[in-house]
Amino acid sequence: MDESDITTPTSPESRRQAAAEALAALGVQRSEHQALSVQCPRSHHLAAVYKTNAGLVYHAIEGPHAHGSRDRVDTGHHGTPSGTEYVDFLAGDSLSDDGLPAWCDCGPYTLSRSELLEAAAGPPRTLHVP
């Protein structure tokens, strides 16, 4: 896909849907396209940024959830899985807040979109937030 083929979504919901579709297009091996991993001071995973054909995409899970392939999936008392996926283009638009939601075992975090953009501009790495 050529960047000239990309249309700018008109609402936050459609922008996040387009970002989710771009992330899904990477397939099951999306870790090969990871530009940035974000961790808390205790090295819990908070979020990731991926390079897609549509641009940099931010991905995080809000709320309690399993963190790895060997973790058991957290399930609520009524059988509903915990954690909500949050996906958005990292660049955002004029209506986008700078704060992006993230969560780990330490609790909720708000990550700066502009700081993540700056960190993702370099080679792939892990960013530890305070």
Describe this structure in words.
This protein is α+β, with helices and mostly antiparallel strands. It has one domain (3-128). It is 16% helix and 34% strand. It contains two helices and seven strands. The protein has a five-stranded mixed sheet with strand order 4-3-2-1-7, with helices on both faces. Strands 5-6 form a two-stranded antiparallel sheet. The longest helix is centred in the first third of the chain and has 13 residues, at 12-24. It starts with 11 loop residues before the first helix and ends with a strand.
Overall pLDDT confidence:
83
Total helical elements: 2
Indicate the overall shape.
globular
Question: Uncertain regions: pLDDT < 50 for 5+ in a row?
Answer: 1-5, 69-80
What series of H and E elements makes up the topology? HEEEEEEHE
Number of domains: 1
Terminus-to-terminus distance: 37 Å
Structural class, from secondary structure content? alpha+beta
Query: C-alpha Rg, in Å?
Result: 15 Å
Query: Strand arrangement, largest sheet?
Result: 4-3-2-1-7
Tell me the number of strands. 7
Instruction: Kindly estimate the percentage of residues that lie in beta strands according to DSSP.
Output: 25-35%
